[in-house]
Amino acid sequence: MKPRNFLAMLLGGVTFAGMLHAQDALELEPVILEAESDETLQQNGYIAISGRQATRVETPIQRLPQAVSVITQDQLQDQAPRTMLEALNYTASATPGNYGYDTRYDSFWLRGFPAFQTGVFRDGLRSFNGLSAWYRNDPYTLEGIAVLKGPASSMFGVSTPGGLVNVVSKRPKDTPYNETRLSFGSHSRVEAAVDFTGPLDATGDTLYRFVALARDADTHIDGYADDRILLAPSVSFRLADDQRLLVSAEYAKDQTGAVAYYHFGEDLDVTDAPAGDPDYNRFDLEQFRIGYEYSWEISEDTQLRQSYRWSKVRADMRYGTRYGIYPDLLPGYWERYHETAKSHVLDLMLEHRLTTGDFQHSLAFGVDYLRGEYSADYGGTALGQAANEALVAPFYAAREQVQTGVYVADQIERDALTLSLSARYDWVDTDYSDAVYGTTTVTSGEQKDEAFTARLGVSYEMANGVTPYANIASSFAPNVAQVYDDGSDPTGSPADPTEALQKEIGVKYALPDQRSVISAALFDIRQDNGMVLVVGEDGRNRGLQYDLTSRGIEFEAVSDLENGVSLIASYTHMKVEINKGSPGTEGNELSGVPNDTLSLFVKYEPQSGALENVGLMAGMRYIGKSYGDDLNTIENASRNYFDLGARYDFAGLGHEGTQLQLNIRNLFDREGQTCTAGWCYRDESRMIDLSLSRRF
């Protein structure tokens, strides 16, 4: 089904649902219409209060001895991000724009390290990604996004040194909530979405949620579409008074472009010429997931939780590229790439609370398991589009990976003191096969990795609301890839696993009214054997292993005041130094990591008067200077972007629950660019989005 046909069907359903429920809504008692369930992540406006999505154990975030940022449901609704990268724009130590505008992947960095390959989790379960078949998480399907800073392997397993992002799915609610939304935007963008939830029976034992979205859109890049169809149903069953089962699924189909960047000249200024062939630039992505979460309250102090997810992603790219720095030349090579990635992920955890003397313990024992595999086919030709429709080379790469981990954690509290300990051991077995570039040779083998990771953190919540903390934590991630230390070697050698150790001190301050939270953190992360992609003279990405040290300081402030003012502010200063890398890079800074980032987002909703039903929003994002290559011969200039938003609630005109919202990104249409690993990208131009929504 084409997106525009599904869009028309969904728009019809939106209109019918609104008519069907309009009369019922008038008869219901007044309720607070909020999208979040607050089941696993408790939040109030822009402030996250507690939740096990941050450390698996239910804990007030203020007492966690770790830097954690949470993008709440209110922030998602106000900023209306189209991708997870946009959702991270106002988060300290997050760098979501290292590759310019590209809607294909959620390719973000945390604390100076790439975090997209093994740093994405959904509801506590890791997403297994292939080379190009990555699962895309749509912000409209989420209740919130928890961003854990620094190593978190001792609880979550395989993950990156800079931290991880755990996205929290929308869950069924026991109170009815229904939303329909229609959006129009720049570049012929049309989108319709619905979000329905509530009880399915009179007793409330069975709850449901249904989220759907359809988008038909072009972009500022000629030949690059941004279409999507998404369906996400879930049902929750109360099996007994102490047992509950949640079953959830999702299907999405996307069509974007395969090449998102522009040509750049010898002076490294990005031109107006797309690098891809506009007539042959297509990336089709189809993804599925289905899983369950089971919880059993064995006793007042003991709970068993088990979760499982199966997912599959199919990617199909067709593209022609103009290599080199000559934008006027026709594409010299047309390529076709297929990839399929699928995985089974399971986690089983027993949590028990007990008291020993004056100390309260929250003990957790768990085991998780991941089985993932992907395979890719590649073909290319210089004979044109038609000749490339059949794959020239039938094989490119294949992986099959099995990971098993066991972990234990103890969160100990005594009055204002919190002591957090966790330890874990992981075993990872990987079978791999690779076609040697430019030859018919295939290399294959088996790689076994294992590691022990741990974390120790302590915090003390003083009577004045100030909570100082400190932690030391380690991370582990296997690298099933070839390393090309010698550029003349076409086969390379197996990569060692990436390991890291962080030392962090910080402070959190909750104002007495509990409506404002300020935090600061000072961190030092040492990474060994990190994978870095370097673009060679032939245009190929080559894998190299770097030892890095990331040091920095970050500040965040979040407020939701009673006078109608809400704000999010963040500042980060950091430097990532190369301890060991490619020749000539030792002692240099890692490319693509800005030394300074600053952001501020403010919302004002007058509480009375003529503007009582109006909301005004404004944001500023500053991205400081960085280097564009690891030799530090290219310097990226600083960039500054402004965002604007406005909302009108029709409640004052007798239409409660109906809102009109405007969001503008890059208000002044700045043409910014950045270079990473010697390759340059352009940021998105001004984007305007106008949406009409109704909640009932």
Task: Map the helices and strands.
Elements: H1 3-27, E1 41-44, E2 47-51, E3 68-71, H2 73-79, H3 84-87, E4 94-95, E5 109-110, E6 113-114, E7 120-122, E8 125-126, E9 142-149, H4 153-156, E10 163-169, E11 177-185, E12 189-199, E13 206-216, E14 226-240, E15 243-256, E16 262-264, E17 270-274, E18 276-299, E19 302-321, E20 333-356, E21 359-381, H5 385-388, E22 393-414, E23 417-435, E24 442-460, E25 466-477, E26 482-483, E27 493-494, E28 498-510, E29 516-535, E30 541-560, E31 565-580, E32 596-604, E33 614-623, E34 626-627, E35 635-636, E36 639-649, E37 658-665, E38 673-676, E39 679-682, E40 687-695
Parallel strand pairs: 7-10
Antiparallel strand pairs: 1-2, 3-9, 4-5, 5-6, 7-8, 9-10, 11-12, 11-40, 12-13, 13-14, 14-15, 15-18, 16-17, 18-19, 19-20, 20-21, 21-22, 22-23, 23-24, 24-25, 25-28, 26-27, 28-29, 29-30, 30-31, 31-32, 32-33, 33-36, 34-35, 36-37, 37-40, 38-39
